[in-house]
């Protein structure tokens, strides 16, 4: 078992996600898909669950991976595989919101009245969660994508916005987080 | 969190936020059932894709065989099933006596048509010779055209035309007149010429 794991680790370490998706597009090997899934599934699910709820996140994850499975050839070697994956997921999420009339894009300005109520026994992690989830959709999204390691251009591409807009959203999100968490500290 | 308290240490804030974010991620991971379902989908999709691929191969093979069969059948038909040609001999017959008879008839008809043509040509020429100089005589009128042709009109015809008011009664010898012909070349009227005839 340990040998298998070692081989698996060696295999996954020696090949990027971009190589893996190219390989999967050519061969359709289940093993390759599994490696891709292991590399990206947690990041994707966390992003989606932060932007929606666990049930919808699970649903959108399935749809996203299904698209990867069915149309891996649609990935162009112009960027990172994860950026393509998140773009598919984000589009599916927005579609789902629109279908259920829950899509209400908010202005990019910082929310002045952002106020989170903390419980006495809340840990710092709980408070971080509460503040993060209280952020406007776009700001929360930009912040999460940055934390996932995407650059400004990639964030702009995934969210179909401009680089400056993405930058502003991240700044507002961090300002809000800082303000709320400092208040908690006080 | 004490580091967050210091505004001047922005990088510390960034680090702390990233740590909190990673902690949150570790609490929200994709479940094993999700992975199982995804891989199951891949298997189903793979099966379906391979099925479609096999179907495509079978379809290509079948169509190729059909094409070869059609070509072979056509070749066989060309070689063996050509329709037999049937020949009919036609002998050229010689001219008999009736030919001479036909020839004389054709000759007669040709002469008749030639005469008709000459007459019609003369009629057409006379039809166009409308202008003439009038000479009156006791037995009738004579109309002399520019090309020295003479059209004689009997007294009876003059009287008839006069009676029908087709001839101007004031005409006299030496007058320039206009002769009107009908389509058949018959004189249907004689009137004084509006313009004096200028024969060249």
UniProtKB/TrEMBL annotation, chain A:
Listed InterPro entries: RNA_pol_sigma-70-like (IPR039425), RNA_pol_sigma-70_dom (IPR014284), RNA_pol_sigma70_r2 (IPR007627), RNA_pol_sigma70_r4_t2 (IPR013249), RNA_pol_sigma_r2 (IPR013325), RNA_pol_sigma_r3/r4-like (IPR013324), WH-like_DNA-bd_sf (IPR036388)
Protein name: Sigma-70 family RNA polymerase sigma factor
Short name of any one Pfam family annotated for the protein: Sigma70_r2
Entry-linked PANTHER family: RNA POLYMERASE ECF-TYPE SIGMA FACTO (PTHR43133), RNA POLYMERASE SIGMA FACTOR HI_1459-RELATED (PTHR43133:SF8)
Top-level lineage group: Bacteria
UniProt keywords, alphabetically: DNA-binding, Sigma factor, Transcription, Transcription regulation
Family affiliation: Belongs to the sigma-70 factor family. ECF subfamily.
NCBIfam families: sigma70-ECF
Organism this protein belongs to: Aliiglaciecola litoralis
Residue span, RNA polymerase sigma factor 70 region 4 type domain: 127-177
Keyword Transcription: yes
RNA polymerase sigma-70 region domain boundaries: 38-102
UniProt keyword Acyltransferase, yes or no: no
Automatic annotation (TrEMBL), chain B:
Domain of life: Bacteria
Record protein name field: Uncharacterized protein
Originating species: Aliiglaciecola litoralis
């Amino acid at each position: 078992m340990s040998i298998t794991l070692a081989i698996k680790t060696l295999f996954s370490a020696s090949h990027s996600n971009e190589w893996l998706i190219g390989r999967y597009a050519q061969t359709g090997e289940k093993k390759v898909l599994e490696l891709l899934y292991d590399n990206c599934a947690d990041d994707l699910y966390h992003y989606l669950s932060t932007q929606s709820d666990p049930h919808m996140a699970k649903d959108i994850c399935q749809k996203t991976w299904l698209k990867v499975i069915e149309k891996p050839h649609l990935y162009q070697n112009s960027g990172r595989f994860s950026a393509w994956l998140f773009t598919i997921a984000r589009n599916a999420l927005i579609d789902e919101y629109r279908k259920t009339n829950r899509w209400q894009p908010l202005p990019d300005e910082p929310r002045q009245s952002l106020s989170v109520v903390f419980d006495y026994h809340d840990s710092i992690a709980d408070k971080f969660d509460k503040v993060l989830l209280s952020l406007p959709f776009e700001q929360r999204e930009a912040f999460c994508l940055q934390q996932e390691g995407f650059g400004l251009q990639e964030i702009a591409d995934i969210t179909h916005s401009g680089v400056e807009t993405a930058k502003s959203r991240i700044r507002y999100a961090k300002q809000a987080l800082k303000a709320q968490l400092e208040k908690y500290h006080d | 969190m004490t580091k967050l308290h210091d505004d001047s240490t922005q990088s510390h804030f960034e680090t702390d936020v990233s740590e909190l974010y990673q902690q949150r991620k570790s609490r929200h991971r994709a479940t094993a059932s999700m992975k199982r379902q995804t891989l199951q989908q891949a298997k189903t999709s793979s099966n379906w894709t391979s099925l479609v691929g096999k179907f495509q191969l079978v379809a290509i093979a079948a169509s190729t065989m059909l094409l070869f069969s059609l070509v072979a059948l056509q070749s066989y038909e060309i070689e063996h099933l050509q329709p037999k040609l049937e020949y009919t001999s036609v002998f050229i017959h010689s001219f008999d006596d009736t030919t001479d008879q036909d020839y004389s008839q054709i000759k007669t008809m040709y002469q008749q048509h030639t005469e008709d043509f000459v007459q019609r040509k003369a009629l057409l020429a006379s039809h166009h010779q409308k202008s003439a100089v009038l000479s009156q005589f006791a037995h009738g009128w004579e109309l002399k055209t520019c090309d020295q042709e003479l059209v004689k009109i009997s007294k009876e015809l003059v009287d008839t035309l006069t009676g029908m008011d087709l001839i101007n009664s004031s005409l006299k010898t030496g007058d320039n007149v206009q002769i009107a012909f009908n389509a058949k070349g018959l004189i249907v009227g004689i009137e004084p010429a509006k313009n004096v005839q200028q024969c060249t």
